[in-house]
Amino acid sequence: MKTTRYSTSRQKSCQPCSNAKAKCDRKATSCSRCALRGLACTYSQASLSGGSRLSLDSTPEPNVAIAPATTQKTSSLAGESTTCIQPGVTSLDGLVSPASTTNLAEDTSRSAHHQRQHQVTSHTTRGGGSAALQIDFKFSHVDLVCPINANDIQNRWLKPYIEVAVLLEQTAKTLSPSITAFTDRILKSYAAIAVRGGGGHRGSIPPFLHPVHVLHTLPNTPPLATCLSLIRSCEKPLPGSEGVLVEVLQREMNKFYEQYGHNNTCDDDDDDDSAAQLLAAFQAYLVYTLVLHYRLGKYAFLRQQAIMMHLQELACACSARGLVCSAEQDGGAQGSRPRWETWIVAETKRRTLYTMYLLDNMLTAKEGLPTFLGTELRGLPAPAGKALWQASARDEWEKAYNLHLAEWYPEGGGLCIDELWAIPADMDEAGVVERRRRVDRWLEGVDEFGMMMYAVTSCTHGG
């Protein structure tokens, strides 16, 4: 039968664009939309038969549906023995034969390899316009310092359980049921965003991950790359597969905790790579914890104390490598501008750390245990404003940072996280007025994450 113009042009889009009902430019190797989002640009069999072209080195998307509890032993990403899951369907689109089998770790490894081969060097502007070419991203040699005692972070999990916390002059705080419920809902949304996203574009990752950083470092950071692939299976798991998912996620958590959890020293020989892997491990462990708690909680039988202890050890190791740009040190009194990449790493580290503290407070309050002020974080910058965090090009960020310096440098630096805490009892009236003025100025430019932090701290501490 003669092929009509309707049948030959029935599907002009790749599979991911078709599923999203988005326009596809069908570029060679990978369309722009898939490249931007770190997706595998594949075409359905119907599209192929109509004359569409499939990239030779494209791979199925890592979003898999897992069938119940069929396992065998095989090699994992690290070459260790692990459980192989044999699903009935290995793609949500049903493009793979039901007889095929998939090992989640190996599938993730292939996806990461595909991303390395096609590392994206462009990203869209905030208004969704054309991509701006960025070929000079260098997330190595970031100049960071740690102005706090990071060791206090890894001991935080002990405070609710020991009376010696009082002797150490820890400041207890009371979280109302309403603010605990609010924090719980916010963190639950972060888990949902992570599960439903998995790419490097803005809007598909939790707000403590920076989209530009994820986009340009994900192929070289296995802990986070594996995490964002595996958790996609948690969105709509097949009935009976939840226990297997829990086992897979917990195995990955244990694997890279053992590798990175105790690495809180700096080695000049491999400092750049190890620091990047530590940050990825910290962020991945936090994402796994959120997903296990909010998506698989009734199947996961969480060892909450052990998981939070490991998470805080990773936070300590990561923080020891630096939380503040050298140019930001002393409240920004140097009046200089750091490299964009250095600032991105510092800001995403701090946001991840603040998110972990929110989770710790919420879980502790739910257990009816006392919660304590994170005095060890005193002096760290409060979450940056929207113009800085959401800048999509280097010149856009530099202009925003110059404005930030002009506004805050004369005052000795931007707002610190402890300025959102309770006003000290010995602060005079002029000091109270000045602090509130600074907080009001900060609030003028914050994004959703900063506003959430203000809501939590304001309802907790007043002021």
TrEMBL record:
SMART domains: GAL4. SUPFAM superfamilies: Zn2/Cys6 DNA-binding domain (SSF57701). The keyword Nucleus applies. Residues 13-43 form the Zn(2)-C6 fungal-type domain. Residues 102-128 are annotated as: Disordered. The keyword Signal does not apply. InterPro entries: Zn2-C6_fun-type_DNA-bd_sf, Zn2Cys6_DnaBD. Keywords: Metal-binding, Nucleus, Transcription, Transcription regulation, Zinc. PANTHER family: FINGER DOMAIN PROTEIN, PUTATIVE (AFU_ORTHOLOGUE AFUA_4G03310)-RELATED, TRANSCRIPTION FACTOR WITH C2H2 AND ZN(2)-CYS(6) DNA BINDING DOMAIN (EUROFUNG)-RELATED-RELATED. This is Zn(2)-C6 fungal-type domain-containing protein.
